[in-house]
Write a structure and sequence with these properties.
Elements: H1 6-17, E1 23-27, E2 33-38, H2 54-57, E3 71-78, E4 84-92, E5 95-102, H3 104-135, H4 137-144, E6 153-164, H5 167-171, H6 176-196, E7 200-205, E8 208-213, H7 222-246, E9 254-269, E10 274-279, H8 281-292, E11 297-301, H9 302-306, E12 316-320, E13 329-335
């Protein structure tokens, strides 16, 4: 290693291999042992003899020599002791050096990463099936190939919360079978516009829906997607209510809140239960706007309003005091008439 002082070389060695129980074997061209050293017993190698074929002591090297390549790297090989090792084989002066380094920590990290990859794959498959149920495999496949880092990814997105007004008190007075049948009818009319506009249904909590726009690729800004989905949602609910009124059945309206801005998208949860989720100020803001919205009303924040130029004329400005926010907030309201 040219131009490096011995203390620097020693420091680099300590940094890279000190805690990895290094061990080595020196072999001739035919794979016969000439020399050895280090922590060979860690890897289940003992009673080594000069002139002995390396394959007789190291089973995973049986048949390797003579070797056609100048160097070879074997990652996380399971040794006779059960400890995984990184094995480096390289030539020098017509001999072969076999360097073994403990890969226990590396293998543990690989297992964790594989587990996380499997969990992410399951999450994507599950969400893709939801998509497939409504729009078919084209959208589902887009979600499967969506790359989301577990450590969190910052994205500009629009978050939509929608709630069926009065449904909780209604459900308390009805049989569960009747409640769930009715709830499924309304949720279908609420979810479809989200999917039509390229959004992701993040959560369904009772009679409430949370959706995210800006995660799947789209030619429209997330605020436009979210507002268009909200408008379709209210129109769908009016259509469903008209049908139910003709059959003298109960009807419900929806209240909607939308906020836009940078949020953190990632994987949350414990080892046994993990889920795709989004967190940040604008998630909380969207939830609070929905909580303030009246039946058949859409409340949006200023960030959303600025991005929906063609739809701005439908909204009127107002100010609200929201829980957790000290000063009144400027918001914009679109309220549908009952007619």
């Amino acid at each position: 290693m040219p131009n490096l002082a011995p203390p620097v070389v020693d420091y680099i060695c300590d940094l890279s291999i000190k805690d990895r129980y290094p061990a080595y074997l020196l072999l001739d061209q035919e794979g016969l042992i000439k020399e050895w050293g280090g922590n060979l017993k860690t890897y289940g190698i003992s009673d080594v003899q000069i002139g002995e074929a390396v394959g007789e002591k190291v089973t995973f090297l049986d048949g390797f020599f003579p070797l056609d390549e100048e160097k070879l790297f074997l990652a996380c090989i399971q040794t006779d002791s059960g400890i995984p090792a990184d094995v480096h084989i390289f030539s020098s002066n017509q001999d072969w050096w076999v360097l073994l380094l403990d890969a226990t920590e590396k293998e543990a990290q690989r297992v964790v990463l594989q587990q996380k990859a499997n969990e992410l794959s399951l999450l994507r498959d599950k969400h893709a099936k939801i998509m497939d149920q409504y729009l078919g495999k084209e959208i589902a496949e887009k979600l499967i190939h969506l790359n989301i880092h577990e450590s969190g990814e910052c994205k500009f997105a629009s978050v939509l919360f929608a709630d069926i007004c009065g449904f909780t008190s209604y459900s308390e007075q009805r049989a569960p079978v009747e409640v769930f049948k009715l709830l499924n009818s309304y949720l279908a009319y609420m979810i479809q516009p989200v999917l039509d506009e390229g959004g992701i249904v993040d959560k369904i909590i009772g009679d409430a829906v949370m959706a995210i726009f800006g995660v799947l690729p789209s030619g429209l800004p997330p605020p436009v997607q979210a507002v268009q989905a909200a408008l379709k949602m209210i129109e769908n609910m009016k259509t469903l209510n008209n049908d139910r009124q003709m059959q003298h059945q109960d009807t419900f309206e929806v209240s909607i809140g939308i906020a836009s801005g940078h949020v953190f998208l990632g994987i949350l949860g414990s080892k046994n239960r993990r889920t795709l989720s989004v967190i940040g100020h604008h998630v909380n803001l969207a939830a609070r706007l929905e909580g303030q919205a009246r039946p058949n009303e859409i409340l949006i924040d200023n960030n959303t309003f600025k991005e929906i130029s063609d739809l701005q004329s439908r909204f009127s400005k107002t100010r609200l005091v929201l829980k957790g926010i000290r000063e009144p907030v400027s918001v914009f309201s679109y309220e549908v008439s009952d007619e």
